[in-house]
Structure formats: C-alpha cells, structure tokens
Design brief:
The protein has 234 residues and is of the alpha+beta class. It contains 4 helices and 5 strands, in the order H-H-H-E-E-H-E-E-E. It has a domain of 90 residues: Fusion Protein Consisting Of Minor Coat Protein, Glycine Rich Linker, Tola, And A His Tag, Chain: A, Domain 2. The strands form 2 sheets. A 3-stranded antiparallel β-sheet has the order 2-1-5, with helices on one face. Strands 3-4 form a two-stranded antiparallel sheet. A hairpin with a 5-residue loop joins strand 1 and strand 2. 12% of the residues are buried. It is found in: Cell inner membrane. Its main location: membrane.
C-alpha cells in the first residue's frame, strides 16, 4: 500500500517563490544600508559680529587758545600844507582859427612841403632804378645785364663740394640776398636739400662785388634779389 502525499504540504512546490522573496528582501536591506546617512548635531554659532549703523567718527572737541590780535595801527593824519595865493597864473588865450577879413594870406613859396617817406625796401620787380652790377653801367637794359652777370659770377666761382659728391647730393638751392643802400650784399638766406650745398651757395654769393644801389624816386633803397643755384652730378 503506497503512501499518499498531500500536494498542499509539499515544500518544493513554492521554493522558487520563496527564493525570489528572500533575495528581494536581502537586496532591499543592502540598498537601505548603503543609502543610510547619519547626521551629527554640531554647533554653528562661531561668533557674532556687531556692525554699528553709523560709522562716522566723532572728533573730540578741543579748545585752542588763540593768540591775542595785534594792536591796531594808528595812522598819522596827512599834513596839509597851505600855499599862499600869491603866484600869478598865466591864462591861456584860445584864438579862433576861422578865416575873417583880417586873416593874412601866406605866400605859396613860404609853405614848406614835408618829404614823403617811402618804403626802405622795394622788390626787384617794382624798383624804378634797379641795382647796377659792375660792368653794366652803359647797358640800356640794366636788369637783364644784372641777371647775365650774376650767372657768369656763379659759373666762375662754382665748386662742387667733395663731401656732396661722395654722398651723391644734388638739387636746387634757392638763394635770396639784399643789395643795401650802400651797394653791399647781406642778409643771405638759402634753402636747399642739404646744408653742404647751402654753404657752397652762400660762399658764391658772398663773393659778389659791391654794386650801385637801386633807387626809388631818386632815393637809394634796399632791393632783395632771388636766384636759384642748381647742383647736378655728371
């Protein structure tokens, strides 16, 4: 006779379910253990800072003893000098300048004519009698002769400075000088590409001879004259 087993009492029937439930409970406990956090109560009162609402510093009241004021200056009253009224004062007589029947007419020859002072310096283009270069006294066109003689003088005294040749300097130097009332040359002014060339142009102009001064209305005047000097390397 075989033993009969009750199917409701067999443990093997729900073993898988029990295993899953146990595993789930263990995993839940492990997760809770990892995520559990402990907090310790600490005191956060490190100190207190008291800030005054009004930070303005009140200066202490001090009493300074001032020196006494200086004594007032006593001004001496001015001395009034009484001048006796015995000086004879000459009265100025104002004569009338209006013409009447008693006015004497002055002769024309007795009237002195004041000389009109003209300018002391006349440009070369406007001067009536241009300065005369030595050797141009007998020429009809003295201005043209003056310029021709100036060119001859420059060619005769021209020397190309050796430093300028070594440095390759060339160009035009504009020269302006004044022929004074006594015929001498002065006030030489130059403007060129280099000082070496300007010095050479000044040396050439300084060798000009004394000239007959220019005249305006028969009176000797200063006459400025301008001429260019060209330096060109061969």
């Amino acid at each position: 006779m075989k033993t009969k087993k009750n199917s409701n009492l067999q443990l093997e029937k729900n073993s898988t379910l029990y295993f899953v439930l146990g595993l789930t409970a263990i995993l839940a406990l492990i997760y809770t253990a990892f995520e559990w956090k402990m907090y310790y109560k600490t005191s956060t009162e490190l100190g207190e800072l008291y800030v005054l609402d009004d930070l303005r510093e009140e200066a202490p009241i001090t009493i300074h003893k001032l020196p006494p004021p200086p004594p007032p200056k006593i001004q001496t009253p001015p001395v009034i000098e009484v001048v006796p009224d015995e000086i004879d004062v000459e009265e100025t007589v104002i004569q009338s300048t209006e013409v009447n029947t008693d006015t004497q007419i002055v002769d024309v020859d007795d009237v002195e004519v004041a000389e009109v002072d003209g300018p002391e310096e006349i440009p070369w283009i406007l001067v009536e009698d241009a300065p005369i270069f030595p050797g141009c006294e007998g020429e009809s066109d003295k201005k043209a002769c003056f310029q021709e003689m100036m060119q001859k003088h420059i060619r005769k005294n021209f020397r190309y400075p050796e430093p300028a040749q070594e440095m390759g300097l060339q160009g035009r130097v504009n020269v302006v000088f004044t022929i004074h009332k006594d015929g001498n040359i002065s006030d030489i002014k130059m403007r060129g590409p280099h000082k070496i060339l300007e010095d050479e142009a000044s040396r050439i102009i300084a060798k000009l001879p004394k000239m007959t001064p220019g005249k305006q209305r028969g009176k000797a005047v200063k006459v400025p004259f301008a001429i260019p000097i060209t330096f060109k390397l061969q």
